[in-house]
Amino acid sequence: MRKTLPSFKSLLSKIASIFLGAALLASAPAAAQTPSVPTGLTAMAVSATQINVAWNAATDNVGVTGYKVYRGGVQVGTPAGTNFIDSGLAGTTAYSYTIAACDAAANCSAQSTAASATTLVAATPGTLVAWGRNVEGQTTIPAGLSGVTAIAAGEVHTVALKSDGTVVAWGLNNYGQAMAAGLSGVTAIAAGRYHTVALKNNGTVVAWGWNHYGQTTIPAGLSGVTAIAAGEVHTVALKNDGTVVAWGENGQGQTTIPAGLSGVTRIAAGGPHTVALKNDGTVVAWGWNLYGQTTIPAGLSGVTAIAAGQSHTVALVVVTTSDTTPPTVPTGLTASAISATQVDLSWTASTHSIGVTGYQVYRGGTLIATLGNVLSFSNSGLT
Q1: How far apart are CA 351 and CA 328, in angstroms?
Q2: Is the pLDDT of residue 322 over 70?
Q3: Phi, psi of 200 (to 5 degrees)
Q4: 210, 344, 347, 370 from 334: Cα distances, Å
Q5: Nearest-CA neighbor of 243 among 217, 219, 209?
Q6: In the chain, what is the greatest distance between 2 CA atoms, to the nearest angstrom?
Q7: How many angstroms separate the CA atoms of 64 and 103, rounded?
Q8: C-alpha distances out from residue 82 to 9, 197, 223, 320, Å
Q9: pTM confidence score
Q10: Which of 132, 169, 130, 128 is nearest to 149 (CA)?
Q11: 266-275 burial, b if ≥16 CB within 10 A, otherwise e?
Q12: pLDDT exceeds 70 at position 10
């Protein structure tokens, strides 16, 4: 028996159906997937009222569009990038932060491991006293100067930061290093030989004065800065991700950052050398070493502050006593369902002989968050 073949019209219809099905599959939205949890969260206090927060970028199958920043379990920001400046805080106060990543489909990750920082002691504005050689007027305090919260001294010029964020400078001005009119929003200052540097409250840096070695030429795109230092003819900046940037004269390698340097919390600049304090209490130094100023003493640890002179380095070491007694068990724990995907926790503070520094949150016996000294936590991304 002869088999009947399908008509040409029938074949076209089937082919069209196949292509239509393929097109529908290609245009179907990607399956719901939450972004990865952000990692590498750091929090650094830069003043009595500001903490800068930074983290590593999260990933997602359709792309991360932004982040949610939580302070003490309460959302305080929605930045698109991987850093956040939290201002208007109280002085000498501990704050804890977590981050969640979100995508275009409104899927958000669980909150990250927490990072904490304590704001600095609020400076009490005061009057200024200066003495010594005064050939260029560097020790002659400008009439009526008051409300000073920070000071810096170059070779023959002096700089003062006022409580209103403005800067006053005086003394030798052959390169314009003592000119600071119109500058505002400043949180820190530094002075080199003939140049001056200021850190603004938006994390950017301004520098002026002698620029023969490029020490006042700010690197393009520099932002997220939390601290500054000025050497004789070089400048150094610490970023909120714990990395260091340096520029200016490099004849002794003072602006060549050691490979892989990270986790830095403080910086200092000497003559032609630079020093960094890491978050593990160790010190790294580089640049001119004729007098051993960049050779770190063997076993040096537990460092809390650093300073650099023309050809020497100083570190402050704090010896802590051993503590083997745990805090009391937290009490009064409550868990409140806020939505289908979020539960808010709160508890009563624990006590300890030398103070409680933080809490760990467990869900079903698994650690899900390490917090600072806070008494609440929002657990999101639940099912």
Answers
A1: 6
A2: no
A3: -95, 165
A4: 61, 8, 6, 18
A5: 219
A6: 120
A7: 4
A8: 57, 26, 12, 34
A9: 0.65
A10: 128
A11: bbbbbbbbbb
A12: no
Written as one letter, the residue type at 229 is A
Listing from the earlier edge strand, what are the strands of the sheet with 205-209?
A: 186-191, 195-200, 205-209
Across the range 304-319, mean pLDDT stands at 92
Q: What is the amino acid identity at position 42?
A: T
User: Residue 357 has what DSSP assignment?
Assistant: -
Helix (H, G, I), strand (E, B) or coil at 26: helix
The residue whose two tokens read 């032609």 is 272
Query: Tens digits of per-residue pLDDT, 148-192?
Result: 999 999 999 999 999 999 999 999 999 999 998 889 999 999 999
Token digits of residue 140: 């002659």
Structure tokens at 355: 């103070």
Phi, psi dihedral angles at 26 (to 5 degrees) = -65, -30
In angstroms, the CA 257 to CA 271 distance is: 16
Range name among 105-114, 199-208, 373-382 with the lowest pLDDT average: 373-382
The gap from C-alpha 379 to its chain's centroid, in whole angstroms, comes to 24
H helices of the chain, in order, are: 8-27
For 123-152, what is the mean pLDDT? Answer: 91
User: Does residue 359 sit in helix, strand or coil?
Assistant: strand
- Least confident piece of the model among 252-261, 284-293, 297-306, 368-377: 368-377
Range in 80-89, 172-181, 221-230 with the lowest mean pLDDT? 80-89
